[in-house]
């Protein structure tokens, strides 16, 4: 028997209609519009990448602000994001650990219950942007600000490849500035949490923004890196959250 992906909001054959997730038409377009805006900002940020990177590398970020931003990094680290999702799983009775059996692994809507589908969608939304970033990093080299000779570059494009490398002994990570995996994970996690807990959307967005800015402040990334990483995360949200309604709104 051939399995087909159920439409958004409709349960698979083994789930009742009462277990389906509510639909909010237009949500996917909003995610994609936000991703497009971030991608445009990322392209425009190439014009400020070098001066911002030089300013941060010179240690001009206020120490108190840097301490605050460093606290937010846990929101962008893959292990930190996993801990946050596990915490939500334990505290939220509307979430259950997803099944890894067939056909549940085919797509979140094939999960045996709505609670498992919710968790599967949140995990996939959090992880997708970071996975896309990892693939791009394998194909594109960009020297991180901390390892680059910024003063010798005529434009931000000079940081791609290895010509901008300041030291002969650089780690593999120093070639992986573009785009930002931390920004992708933080934005994906914020989108997932905001979908499940929409009242906290502004808070989650603030955490994601702070975690992304921390990467610039510590000379790990350029502004364009974090914008494009966040854009990729929202593409993941468009794929896995799509036109599904925010959960609290759906359950109200």
List keywords for this structure.
252 residues, mainly alpha, Vanadium-containing Chloroperoxidase, domain 1, 9 helices
Give the gist of this structure.
With about 250 residues, this protein is mostly helical. It has 9 helices and no strands.
Please, could you describe this protein's structure?
With 252 residues, this protein is an all-alpha fold. It has one domain: Vanadium-containing Chloroperoxidase, domain 1, CATH 1.20.144. The chain is 53% helix and 0% strand. It is built from 9 helices and no strands. The mean pLDDT is 90.
Number of domains: 1
What is the string of SSEs from the N terminus onward?
Answer: HHHHHHHHH
Can you give the mean pLDDT? 90
How far is the first residue's CA from the last residue's CA? 38 Å
Class, according to the CATH hierarchy?
A: Mainly Alpha
Low-pLDDT parts are none
What class would the helix/strand composition place it in?
A: mainly alpha
Sketch the major β-sheet: none
Query: What's the CATH architecture?
Result: Up-down Bundle
Structure summary, number of beta strands: 0
What percentage of the residues does DSSP assign to strands (E)? under 5%
Topology:
Layout: H1 27-45, H2 49-57, H3 63-71, H4 78-91, H5 114-139, H6 181-196, H7 201-217, H8 223-240, H9 247-251
Helix pairs in contact: 1-8, 3-7, 4-5, 5-6, 5-8, 6-7, 6-8
């Amino acid at each position: 028997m051939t399995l087909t992906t159920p439409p958004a909001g409709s349960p698979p054959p083994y789930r009742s209609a009462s277990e389906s997730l509510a639909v909010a038409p237009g949500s996917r377009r909003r995610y994609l519009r936000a991703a497009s805006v971030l991608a445009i900002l990322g392209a425009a940020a190439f014009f400020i990448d070098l001066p911002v990177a030089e300013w941060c590398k010179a240690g001009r970020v206020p120490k108190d602000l840097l301490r605050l931003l460093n606290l937010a990094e846990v929101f962008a680290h893959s292990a930190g994001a996993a801990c946050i999702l596990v915490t939500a799983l334990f505290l939220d009775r509307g979430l259950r650990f997803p099944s890894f059996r067939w056909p549940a692994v085919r797509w979140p809507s094939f999960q045996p219950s709505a609670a498992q589908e919710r968790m599967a969608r949140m995990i996939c939304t959090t992880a997708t942007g970071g996975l896309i970033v990892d693939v791009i990093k394998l194909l594109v080299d960009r020297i991180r600000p901390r390892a680059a000779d910024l003063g010798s570059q005529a434009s931000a494009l000079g940081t791609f490849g290895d010509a901008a490398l300041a030291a002969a002994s650089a780690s593999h990570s120093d070639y992986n500035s573009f785009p930002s995996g931390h920004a992708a994970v933080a934005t994906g996690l914020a989108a997932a949490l905001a979908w499940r807990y929409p009242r906290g959307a502004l808070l989650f967005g603030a955490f994601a923004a702070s975690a992304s800015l921390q990467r610039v402040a510590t000379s790990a990334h350029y502004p364009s890196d974090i914008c494009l990483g966040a854009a990729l995360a929202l593409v993941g949200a468009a794929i896995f959250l799509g036109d599904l309604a925010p959960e609290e709104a759906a359950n109200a």
